[in-house]
């Protein structure tokens, strides 16, 4: 049973993260299923663009702590979104945490409702936003991002737009996406592919340069004593030992 539901309307394929029992956490299975769905979209000449969205009240809660994907698999998924020869548009109407923010950053356009919330919660469980930095750092304001990377604070969609994480926010995210999707439907498939290559060149340079180091950092941190304490505290709904 796939964890990705799919619909299509006028050449736009919508892929919905559909694991509401885990708040669409990035498990090994969900990452694999999403990668397979994106591969299908990339090969299908009838797909002009892809919308990445979610069921339930959470776009993604980040890595599934009980069944996390291998860092290489997450790097591969993020790069696949960046390299897909069709635009990928994130549609968010709920909460986004940790690794889920990497998905947003990998997308070409990201829109969220005004009720969405965001947080880089990695530091609160003893790890760092390592792998997701590959698409995030080239596309956001690093000075503004530092606060949320270092504190794990929650922030709203207006702040996410200021950071460069979101393209737009609106009370009705579908109204906001209507002119964007109409514009993509009026665009030449060849032109979309080549224009996306221009836009993603700097991001892919970061993958080429830093992916191996950041994957190793992620793997090292996730097996550290502080990470074990942080994850246990999170699952037990208590403060970690270092909280003062």
UniProtKB/TrEMBL annotation:
The molecular function terms in GO held by this entry are: catalytic activity
Query: What Gene3D superfamilies would the database entry show?
Result: 2-enoyl-CoA Hydratase, Chain A, domain 1, Lyase 2-enoyl-coa Hydratase, Chain A, domain 2
Which InterPro entries does this entry report, sorted A to Z?
ClpP/crotonase-like_dom_sf, Enoyl-CoA_hydra/iso, Enoyl-CoA_hydra_C, Enoyl-CoA_Hydratase/Isomerase
Q: Which domain of life is it from?
A: Bacteria
Q: Name the SUPFAM superfamilies on file.
A: ClpP/crotonase
- Family per UniProt? Belongs to the enoyl-CoA hydratase/isomerase family.
Task: Give the protein name, as stated in the record.
Answer: Enoyl-CoA hydratase
């Amino acid at each position: 049973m796939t964890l990705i539901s799919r619909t299509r309307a006028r050449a736009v394929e919508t892929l919905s993260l559909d694991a509401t029992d885990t708040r669409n956490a990035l498990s090994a299975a969900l990452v694999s299923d999403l990668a397979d769905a994106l591969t299908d979209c990339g090969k299908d000449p009838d797909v002009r663009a892809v919308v990445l969205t979610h069921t339930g009240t959470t776009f993604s809660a980040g890595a599934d702590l009980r069944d996390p994907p291998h860092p290489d698999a997450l790097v591969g998924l993020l790069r696949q979104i960046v390299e897909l020869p069709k635009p990928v548009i994130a549609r968010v109407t709920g909460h986004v945490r940790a690794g889920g923010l990497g998905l947003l950053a990998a997308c070409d356009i990201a829109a969220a409702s005004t009720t969405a919330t965001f947080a880089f919660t990695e530091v609160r469980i003893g790890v760092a936003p390592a792998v997701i930095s590959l698409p995030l750092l080239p596309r956001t304001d690093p000075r503004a991002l530092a606060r949320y990377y270092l504190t794990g604070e929650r922030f709203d969609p207006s702040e996410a737009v200021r950071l460069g994480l979101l393209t737009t926010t609106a009370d009705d995210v579908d109204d906001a996406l209507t002119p964007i999707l109409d514009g993509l439907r009026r665009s030449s498939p060849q032109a979309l592919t080549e224009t996306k290559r221009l836009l993603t060149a700097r991001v892919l340079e970061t993958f080429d340069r830093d992916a191996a180091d950041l994957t190793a950092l992620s793997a090292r941190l996730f097996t550290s004593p502080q990470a074990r304490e942080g994850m246990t505290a999170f699952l037990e709904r208590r403060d970690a030992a270092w909280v003062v």
